[in-house]
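Re: [ENG-882] Designed sequences occasionally contain unexpected residues at chain ends

Forwarding the minimal case from QA. Structure tokens:
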């Protein structure tokens, strides 16, 4: 489990400290003590994964008199062992008068209360250093920023990010391993049609494809791989193994663009968008029906596989960063300023949903038409995750247990999901984040 990384002002910038059981491991060095970890912290060298972990490590330092975890235990112990006026010993006529005190009911009650305090403290504080509530931090093995994630089932998933990084798991994220991508730049989006067939997209119009679950990745010709004009791609979607769409922004021509394939990526062609705005996200529910969103509240829709795209009225000029549909009629789009838009008629009408405002949302996912999540910027120092169980009529904050800016989220049903973000952050839940 990642504990902390060294900050940029140190000679060990990016080096990690991880926890394995009760041991602390300094990258490139080996085991160190909890006291060593806290000394680095005292010198201002560490960037912590979360404050709950920080408090827990501090409690392992013998010289520390109290910590947020140790204090309830000490209090409980004092309640259980303090002498009370009504504790008596047996009379002299008893053969055991010098050995066995008779404990009063009051002391037993106090001891029970102390035990309850300890159990409550553990229940509340343990999630703070393992993850927040129903979200747990997974060990990604990298500090590279991660921008995209996609799972096809409870075991198999992929995440992409800076430096052309592609991570893969076959056990639900218990372990992640890096796959060789051969990328020429940062990767921003990933989508898999099944356990074997997938695409990753990124800077310079790059499209990478795999037909063996990522064991090998090969570049496909997008027709727009240009290191000069930088026609970057930000997202990709694929409802099946032959159809796919990718969206982005052509900085040279100052227009958003959509690329599409109908042959598994053997050829990609430009689709007519006619919009001079950056497109950030795209989703298709089948081979014909899809939506793309972007800057200035832009929402585009297609019912013919992208041959034609029509603008839908979002009712907002706020930039949209993420979009998802649970079926052909129910959909959500999220973006800057905490905006959440929803439709129940395929986008003919969109309405705002209350998110509580603040921060930006960069990703959204729904397990069905009722249960969904939105992730994004930090609020009050914590990664922001909102959840709904009524289609977005109400949204409630969930404790992420993280302080990283989250970039994307993927759910395979109403319980099992993953989110990724800066500094290699990967969070997972098996109970909907509750």
């Amino acid at each position: 489990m990642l504990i902390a990384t060294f900050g940029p002002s140190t000679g060990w910038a990016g080096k990690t400290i991880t926890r394995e059981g009760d041991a602390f491991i300094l990258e490139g060095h080996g085991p160190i003590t909890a006291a060593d970890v806290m000394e680095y912290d005292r010198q201002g060298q560490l960037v912590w994964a979360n404050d709950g972990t920080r408090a827990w490590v501090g409690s392992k330092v013998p010289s520390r008199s109290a910590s947020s975890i140790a204090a309830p235990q000490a209090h409980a112990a004092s309640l259980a062992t303090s002498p009370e006026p009504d504790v008596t010993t047996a009379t002299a006529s008893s053969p055991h008068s010098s050995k066995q005190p008779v404990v009063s009911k009051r002391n037993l009650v106090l001891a029970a209360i102390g035990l309850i305090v300890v159990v409550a403290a553990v229940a509340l504080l343990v999630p703070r250093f393992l993850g927040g509530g129903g979200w747990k931090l997974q060990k990604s093995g990298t500090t590279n920023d991660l921008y995209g994630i996609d799972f096809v089932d409870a075991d198999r998933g992929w995440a992409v990010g800076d430096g052309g990084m592609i991570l893969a798991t076959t056990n639900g994220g218990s372990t992640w391993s890096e796959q060789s991508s051969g990328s020429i730049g940062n990767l921003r989006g990933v989508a898999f049609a099944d356990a074997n067939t997938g695409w990753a997209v990124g800077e310079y119009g790059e499209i990478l494809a795999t037909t063996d679950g990522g064991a090998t990745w090969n570049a496909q010709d997008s027709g727009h791989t240009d290191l000069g004009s930088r026609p970057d791609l930000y997202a990709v979607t694929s409802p099946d193994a032959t159809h796919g769409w990718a969206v982005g922004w052509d900085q040279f021509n100052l227009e958003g663009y959509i690329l599409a394939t109908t042959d598994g990526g053997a050829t990609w062609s430009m689709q007519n968008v006619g919009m001079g705005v950056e497109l950030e996200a795209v989703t298709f529910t089948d081979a014909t029906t899809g939506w793309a969103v972007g800057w200035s509240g832009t929402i585009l829709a297609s019912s013919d596989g992208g041959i034609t795209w029509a603008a839908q009225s979002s009712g907002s000029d706020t930039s949209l960063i993420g979009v998802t549909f649970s079926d052909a009629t129910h959909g959500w789009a999220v973006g800057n300023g905490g905006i959440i838009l929803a439709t129940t008629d395929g986008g003919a009408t969109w309405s705002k949903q209350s998110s509580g405002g603040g921060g930006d949302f960069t990703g959204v996912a729904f397990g069905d038409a009722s249960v969904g999540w939105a992730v994004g910027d930090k609020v009050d120092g914590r990664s922001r995750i909102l959840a709904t169980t009524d289609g977005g009529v109400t949204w409630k904050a969930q404790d992420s247990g993280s302080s990283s800016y989250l970039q994307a989220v993927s759910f395979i049903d109403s319980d099992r999901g993953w989110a990724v973000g800066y500094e290699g952050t990967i969070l997972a839940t098996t109970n909907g984040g509750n």
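QA comment: On inspection the terminal residues look reasonable. The radius of gyration is 26 Å. Proposing we downgrade this to a documentation issue.
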